[in-house]
Structure formats: structure tokens, C-alpha cells
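Quick note —
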Amino acid sequence: MTHEDINYDYDTLLGMLNSEDQENVVLALTSLENIEVLPNIVKTLLLRKESAIGISMWNKHAPTIVNVMKENGIPFDSTVTFKQISEAGVTHKAPKEHVQLLVERINAQVLKDLRDIGYDYLKSIEVKLDYAD
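Predicted structure written out below.
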């Protein structure tokens, strides 16, 4: 299976991972278990960061993903940061669309954080990632 074969819908999987229905969580994790991990590193790490499930569920239902992350020195069993996701994306040459998703998620989080500390009048914010060659 190549990364071209993988076109999973991030928002659908995130919704399933954050579902109160454990069957949805397990279904999402077992679906992810069938992807090629490194070409999908950014999306997978974002799902780990933004989902409400703990590492024990990942270990049980998506052990291949956890093992690939460990083998590649990518923190996965603790809190995943946007910086770690960005670095993994650069290291593993993530597709441009995946990096764009990362940028969108960073923008959304920065806007939320600013609104939480009183900048509730902000309509939008734009963070741009510009990687050196």
C-alpha cells in the first residue's frame, strides 16, 4: 500500500476518536492500523494530539503505529506538540496537503488560545510555516 492509496478523512477519524462510543474509537484505530505510517506521519500525529484517547488504546488497537513511531524516535506515548509534528513532517517529507492541514490546525489553536485570554474580538489569525531548503 502506498501513501497515494491512503486518503483518509481527518475530521471523520478525529470525530470517531473523540466519540463517547468506544466502538467508534476502536473502528478508527483499527482503520488507522492499516495505513502506511510514515507517509501519513503528520495526520497520524495530529490525530494523536487532538484526540481524547490515551496511549493504552493506541497500544491495544494500533500497535503498528506506536511501534513505527518508537522505531523512528518520534514521541507518541506522551503529549505530542505541533513542533514535533512539524519536525516529523520535514524529516519524513510529508505531502504538502498534510503540512497544510498542520498549518490550519496550528492557526485554529492559536486563535482559540488568544480568544481564551481575552482577544475574543479576533476573527482569524494566520500562522505561516516556511521551511528552509
